[in-house]
Design goal:
Fic-like fold
Length: 304
């Protein structure tokens, strides 16, 4: 698999660099604050990563399963097990990232074992037969090539000259393309992407269920060698996560729903939502609600 030259949306990349620089000035993040942030991201990552693969638990039901250990009436036992395993795998990923661990064959298999131990009979083991992906025009490589392809991918992670966001997209797609396991590849890919981002000083991201169709579309484009759409897709989530961190650390960056922040401007919520979608207003969309900050609205009003 070869990719064309990778690029990234310049305006978005500039925003990411500015927010990363601002976040770095406030490191180390107080331990109690960081624990709360990661607890929230852990819940949302678990819900969305599993939901992308067909898990039927809602966000609130996932919260109950993880925090109270209860089972949800009418929901499959498999869905409960997936949620608990994925959350445990997220904890493992955070531990590995904080120790600055490089991606290796052993770590890949360890993450897969954790995320699928309750649902597969061969957790952590590479597939031993060829497979086809339903609805995809791309056929994963022969199982006989998996070890070498993973080794090549690990080498590329170390040597390819890419910015961090582009390399995160490369890691995500290359792993999904190799499809080393019989099941669970998507969930492992999302965890590996976060492992790399955190190790490089970025916050973890959440790829959302509501963006599932777009997510699969940008992966399909990457199958054809065009990594740019996936890079931009991941960049938007990195931008959102950076803003989320800053909103908790800085009052001027505190996220406020556009319905409320419209009061600080002479524009309606609908107009501000439009400008947010166009990238003209610095804003993020979390769980289907647009947010911005007092700092962002002041800058928008000043520069428009």
């Amino acid at each position: 698999m070869k990719y064309a030259d990778t690029d990234i949306n310049e305006l978005l990349f500039k925003k990411i660099q500015e927010k990363k620089k601002k976040l770095d000035k406030h490191r180390p993040i107080p331990k109690d604050t960081l624990v709360k942030i990661l607890e929230d991201i852990r819940l949302r990552h678990t819900y969305h990563s599993d939901a992308i693969e067909g898990n039927t638990l809602s966000l609130q039901e996932t919260k109950v399963v993880l925090e109270e250990g209860l089972t949800i009436n009418g929901k499959p036992l498999k869905d409960h097990i997936e949620a608990k395993d994925d959350a445990e795998a997220f904890d493992l990923m955070i531990e590995l990232a904080q120790k600055k661990k490089q991606i290796t064959q052993e770590i890949i298999q360890r993450i897969h074992e954790t995320v699928t131990k309750g649902t597969l009979t061969d957790p952590g083991k590479y597939r031993t037969e060829n497979v086809r992906i339903s609805g995809s025009k791309t056929t994963p490589p022969s199982y006989l090539k998996i070890v070498k392809l993973i080794d090549d991918c690990i080498k590329d992670i170390k040597t390819l000259k890419m910015n961090t966001i582009s390399k995160a997209a490369f890691i995500h797609h290359k792993f999904v393309w190799i499809h080393p396991f019989s099941n669970g590849n998507g969930r492992v890919a999302r965890l590996l992407t976060n492992l790399y981002l955190i190790k490089e000083g970025y916050p973890p991201i959440v790829l959302k269920k509501d963006d599932r169709k777009k997510y699969y579309n940008v992966l399909k484009q990457a199958d054809s060698g065009n990594l740019n759409p996936l890079t931009d897709f991941i960049a938007k989530e990195v931008h959102e996560s950076l803003q989320y961190y800053l909103s908790i650390l800085l009052e001027e960056e505190r996220l406020i729903p556009l319905k409320e922040i419209a009061k600080y401007s002479n524009h309606s919520q609908e107009y501000l939502s439009l400008r947010a979608r166009q990238g003209k207003l610095d804003a993020v969309k979390i769980e289907n609600i647009w947010y911005s900050s007092k700092r962002a609205i002041k800058e928008y009003m000043k520069n428009k």
